[in-house]
Amino acid sequence: MPKNSKVVKRELDDDVTESVKDLLSNEDSAEDAFKTSELIVDGQEEKDTDVEEGSEVEDERPAWNSKLQYILAQVGFSVGLGNVWRFPYLCQKNGGGAYLLPYLILLMVIGIPLFFLELSVGQRIRRGSIGVWNYISPKLGGIGFASCVVCYFVALYYNVIIGWSLFYFSQSFQQPLPWDQCPLVKNASHTFVEPECEQSSATTYYWYREALNISSSISESGGLNWKMTICLLAAWVMVCLAMIKGIQSSGKIVYFSSLFPYVVLICFLIRAFLLNGSIDGIRHMFTPRLEIMLEPKVWREAATQVFFALGLGFGGVIAFSSYNKRDNNCHFDALNWKEEGSSQGS
């Protein structure tokens, strides 16, 4: 073979080798590009998975152990001093039985729709009052903080009332009861009834002078009332123990805290019926005065009582419903509470 042919052959072999290398390099670059695009797709899928997992984590919010716990929690939140003390007073003040008509009308027009709104919002977003309003709009987050501040002030005076109840409960294990009769004052010559108690009553005297140990004017502090301080501390400790583990602890407490008030109300009802003139008092309370229904004040106080009766605007309804599953029938719950609110009114 001539030398020129060998040179040509070598050049052809070199060209083939280079073309093969170019093909391989192009194949590698294509493969790298494919891998890069695959990584991008995988990364996007991972992000989507993270979003789904994030929603699943959000769905992992603690839930009520049973529907009964949730119902008792809402009932316990709604049935409070506003129903036990405030409603009979407003009913007698604003026309007796005629007051029930504006109350029931406003309960249907205002109370139930707002109650259903709070139930559905809390159940769908699954956050507390602050989180719900921040989720709707960060500019509305102040509404959630305002409701928490209101709940804080309500908790302050409610625990004071619990402290008073604990004090009277501790003093009730006596015979006769310390507020049954006026105390006697003894001096060197004779014994007489406390004049201040004689001018008022035994229960009033015991409340102001023994329980509260109230001073003669607001400018005098009167010192620290240790008995009430201890009772108030015990009330806050009870609340802390009930709430320390969230709904895992409060969900068990509601079996007592929500049902016991009804036992007390039944006892009060039986005791009231046994008193002299009880029928006359009930007749006077529920005798309708229809002319007073034309006053705007009656409707305003009826609307206020609707908010107290259902616990609207405090954030508690939103918080309780946020521990429900998203497929819970909150519309059915709102209708049930309509019956509850009607029964509280009657």
Automatic annotation (TrEMBL):
User: Membrane: is it a keyword of this entry?
Assistant: yes
The superkingdom of the source organism is: Eukaryota
Q: Which gene encodes it?
A: SLC6A15
- The protein here is known as Transporter
**Region forming the signal peptide:** none
This protein's UniProt keywords:
Membrane, Metal-binding, Sodium, Symport, Transmembrane, Transmembrane helix, Transport
Q: Name one GO cellular component term.
A: plasma membrane
* Family in the record: Belongs to the sodium:neurotransmitter symporter (SNF) (TC 2.A.22) family.
Q: Name one Pfam family in it.
A: SNF
Q: Which GO biological process categories is it annotated with?
A: L-leucine transport
Q: Where are the transmembrane segments?
A: 70-88, 100-121, 142-169, 224-244, 253-274, 302-323
The compartments listed are:
Membrane
Q: Does the keyword Metal-binding apply?
A: yes
**Recorded GO MF terms:** metal ion binding; proline:sodium symporter activity
What is the species listed in this Swiss-Prot or TrEMBL entry? Aotus nancymaae (Ma's night monkey)
Record InterPro entries: Na/ntran_symport, SNS_sf
Where is Na(+) bound in this sequence?
A: G76, V79, N83
The membrane topology noted for this protein in its Swiss-Prot or TrEMBL record is: Multi-pass membrane protein
